[in-house]
Specification:
Blueprint: H1 4-20, H2 22-33, H3 41-45, H4 49-53, H5 59-70, E1 73-77, E2 80-83, H6 86-93, H7 110-123, H8 126-152, E3 157-158, H9 159-176, H10 182-185, H11 190-199, H12 208-216, H13 222-231, H14 236-261, H15 265-275, H16 288-291, H17 295-307, E4 316-318, E5 324-326, E6 329-331, E7 336-338, H18 341-344, H19 388-405, E8 406-410, H20 417-421, E9 424-426, E10 428-430, E11 435-440
Parallel strand pairs: 2-7
Antiparallel strand pairs: 1-2, 3-11, 4-7, 5-6, 8-11, 9-10
Helix pairs in contact: 8-9, 8-19, 9-14, 11-13, 14-17, 14-19
Amino acid sequence: MRSLHVVVGEVLHFHHQYGLNIIAAFTQAVRIQGSILGGPFGCSITSLSLPVILRHSDAFRRVQSLHQQYGPFVRPRPNYLSIAHSKAVNVIYGPGSRYPMVSLQTMRDKKSHEERRRVWSAAFGDKAVRGYEERLRRYLNDLVDYFSSQAAVGKPVNITKWFELYSYDFMSDLTFGKSFGMLEAQEDHWAIHLLKQAMIPLGLYLPTWFFRIVTSIPGLSRAWQRLFDFCGERMMERIKLVILAGSDTTATILAAAMYQLVQHPEQVQRLRDEDSPYITAPSHEVLHEKIANLPHLNAIINETLRLHPPAAASLQRKAPPEGITIEGVYISGNMTVMCPQYVLGRDEEVYERPKEFLPERWYLHSEMVKQRAAFAPFSLGPYGCIGKPMALLTLRNTLVRLVTMFDFEFAPGEDGTAFERKAKDRFTMGYGDLQILFRKRSEIGS
């Protein structure tokens, strides 16, 4: 490991070069302020301005505010562009996109990515996913048993926490062949705690050179090394991706769906009416193949993803070297770009009544979805989420089981405001605690 004085020397050398470029950056910022690429003046000069703005890990909210102020094309830092325009989504993320991936969790090299994706495809194909349903059911039974025990004594459940325990146990079982035992312990496994801590800096959108410096300083990377040792060096890259992408995002969507359903009991009843023919008595279990195409169930999931995308503002791409034009706006070559799903999901140009939870827009009132191409919560194209079938299996089975077995409402003293107010964007979304009071229903048809 390099000594501290060598690291400090590198830092000083970097800042010397950085200072030599500041005048050029300032000149560029002045020019851009007068162009269609708007944004805070300081963000056009230095990549350190954005982390200051995002110090509370609320990128989804701050990026939306910037777009409301500056329009669909916002430059939140040098060589970085956020585009809240429906026609940009397919250009940037779609199958024919020439934008390579720029990500901390995914391979950038197209050939290497294609080779790895072919390997993963077998694990996430329809046949394989059907085989995971029985394994999921074991953890869903444990979750339901806990909810039932709390319902019996009238105690509320923090569903934000318990959906995380459930999702991480299921995905760790698939990944390692044995769960982390978080549902039984009723708390995070230490490895998951480390993973969550390591995600915090990602919410600040720090420049890449910052991470190189930090990981070079003795002692600061000790926690990560402990996690590396736990997973094994050869498996580490794949383990981080599967556990984070498969657990964190699913737990977030489940919590957000329940947050919406508890406020819209009419949607709960419509879902019960729709799924009741497929419920097995007395266990209340259901086969995924029976419910996979239920329109209202899928509409509830889509509407939740629209309002609460798990990757709200973090899926980045890099423009081709020659640049590209989107809706008359020229984007310079090699500029990092993104289309924030959180912003698009609340855009009146894309959806009618965008602030309202209206699942019917997805199958009864298609005119309420003005720009269908803007909806890409799992991303698109060759870098789209390969685990989408697994996520939908978990979401459908869990939601149907819960609404069938329980009535639910906000616990006394809970109004749901902290759920969104305390949300954090750390590459994937995390929400505040949400206390829900469950009551077992006497019969399936009640």
